[in-house]
Every structure is written in structure tokens, then in C-alpha cells.
Give the backbone structure.
Amino acid sequence: MSDALNRGLEDAVVAETRLSSIDGERGELRIAGYDVADLAPNATYEEVLFLLLNDRLPDADELAALREDLAGRRDLPDETHGVLRAAAEEGEPAMAALRMAAAAGSLGHEGEDPDLDARRMVAALPTAVAAYWRYRQGEDAVAPREDLRHAANYLYMLTGEEPDPADVRGLETYLNAVVDHGFNASTFTARTVVSTESDVVSAVTAAIGALKGPLHGGAPGPVLDMLDEIRDAGDPAATIREKLEAGERLMGFGHRVYDVRDPRAAVLSGAAEGVYDADDPFLDLATEVEDIAVDLLAEYKPGRNLETNVEFYTAVLLRGVGIPRELFSTTFAVGRVAGWGAHCLEQLDDNRLVRPRARYVGATDREWTPLDDR
Ligand code: ACO
């Protein structure tokens, strides 16, 4: 048995998956075989969910059935609304509120059926995020509408207004683009939880906990803060250089698995073009900042291949769609939950308990000392 240490499990292959594949050198991401650049801007979120669950695209009847199924599962029990209202009143961050609401997701149906639980969590998460946000604004939650598609209904519940079709397309492209991404920390967490034959609600709750950390799903808010700062300072090149001179990290750049530009950056910047009005200079500013940042990162961190990651244009796109920055990470969860659910089912299909080992580096040969002698 090897005692070689692999901190962070970098490059360790621990399972097989048919859900997504990543080529970090060529900058390619495929979702169940489809290039993300082809799938994300064209598919509805429901089609992508069906693809992950069934390994093929649905026909019209199957799609209609899935839409109806999800739409019928959007309502949350009063108890969950109570948790969300309390979290909002306490000023809890959105990801903490979502984790609490997700944990209540099994109320009334503990561990019923993994497939059903996966769809239930996909349907419930947008309602939870939107309700939290409404309570944070001191408003009532907006009840979900069954006639709207998944992405459109999320926007509707956030604002209470009929969503703009261009914003819906932008949001849906985003949700599709982030739906799955190999064995990232939250996905691995979800699979680890169900590997004990625990339930999907527990797995999704734990995955939200993992996504909450700033090294995983927390960057798009800070990207927007950085872009605002650069815009307000008036000289992008000088501000970016100052940040690098001060040893700061540029938000939205660098990635553990990509040596080139994250393929989702192209998908999301393309989608952003569809949601920004011609008189809003923000998208042009972002493009300028990206060009300058990539050049300066090559100068300050030679050989590191620090390119644009998914979070950079996530921030730009979601701002354009009108999602408040406090909800960027929870909106990431709203997209990723279909991937988590599908991974749970894949894990359960061919399960092996996840149980790595640690190298012990603590004290040895100690002998018990009674309390009075210490
Ligand atoms: N800005 C400036 N320098 C950077 C950046 C950055 N964004 N990213 C990495 N570096 C530098 C590090 O300082 C380090 O330099 P050094 O060797 O001279 O000390 C070198 O590049 C390698 O950095 P690591 O932290 O080892 O790279 P790792 O692969 O662990 O980090 C990460 C990846 C966390 C994404 C990192 O690039 C980062 O912090 N980026 C900024 C935050 C961000 O955009 N996060 C979202 C990631 S996308 C996602 O997770 C969905």
C-alpha cells in the first residue's frame, strides 16, 4: 500500500463519469458529449437536466413531461419559508440561507427515491433563493408560476415581473454552462455523501456547503467588486498593475484544471452580448480589463498560464441579467444542482464507499495520565 501523499487529490482519478469531460490543455468542456459552446446557448435547462439524467436529449413529449414535473415541485413548505425568512432577517448570507433551506428539503419525504429527490432539489432551489431575496428586501415571496420554464420562473420569482426573453436566454445559458464540471469540490462532496448510501437531499445540502467557500463558488461577487473599482479609478491598466504589485490576486483569472481560457468564458461573454444594451459600457470595460489582465498576469507570473476563468464573465453576464451580486453564488448552485443530482444517481448506480486514507503525523507512544497528575 503506497503512503505517497496527494494533498487536494490533484490528478487523482477516483470514479468514472459520463456526465462531463474536461480537456484543460485544449480548453474544452463537453456535457454528456456535447460541446458546452453548442449546448449552453441553445438548450433549455430542462433539456440539459434530461440529458444528464438519461444520457440523451428528450423528445417533445418527454420534455413536456419533465417541465410539468418540475413545475409541480416548485412550492416550498411553510416551514422552509420560515427558515428563509429568519435567515434573511438575521442578515445571513444567501449561501447560508440556501444551505438551511436545502437541508429542510426532505421534510415529509425522507430518502424516498434518489431520482425523485434529485428532481425535487432542482425544482426547489430557485424558489428558495428567490424567497430569501424577497424577504431580504422586506417583501413577500412571489409564488412560482407553472406556465413558465425553469429559468424564466426563477427570474419571475426574484422580481415579481414578467421576465425579459433576452434575460431569460442569458440566464439559461449561464445555468447550462455551469451545470457540471468534472469532479469539482462540491460534486465530489455530493458523491462522497451518497457513497455511504445516505440520501440525495443530504448530498445536495453538503454540496452547497462546499460551494459556499471562496475557493469554489465565491468568486463572481468579488469579480464585480473588482470591475467596479477599476471602472471608478478611471485607468484600468494602472489599477490592475497596482493590484499585482501589491501581491493581490485578480478575481476571475487562473484555474486548477485549465491552462488556457476557460471554455465557459467564451460562452458567457457571448451570452452577455445578448443582454447588455448598446448604451451600457460595462461589457466593453470587462473586455478591456480581460485583455489587460491576461497580459499583465503573463508579465508578473510568467509560466503560470493564468487565463480568464468562468467567474469573470459570470459576474458580467449575471449583472446584465439583473441578478443581485449577493445572489451570484446561489445562482451558481441553482445551475449546478442538476449536475449534483445526476452525479448522485451515477454514484449509486455503481457505488463504492469513498474512503481514502491519511498519513499519520501526530505523536506516538503516549501513555495515559490521570487528570490529577497533569
Ligand atoms: N491573480 C494573480 N496571481 C494568481 C492568480 C490570480 N488570479 N491565480 C493564481 N495566481 C498565482 C499565485 O499567486 C501563484 O503564484 P506564485 O507561485 O508566484 O506564488 C501561482 O499563480 C499559482 O497559484 P495557485 O494558487 O497555486 O493556483 P491554484 O491552481 O491552486 O489556484 C485559483 C486556482 C484558486 C482559481 C487561483 O487561480 C485564484 O485564486 N484565482 C482568483 C480567484 C478566482 O477567480 N476564483 C474562481 C475560480 S473558478 C472556479 O473555481 C469555479
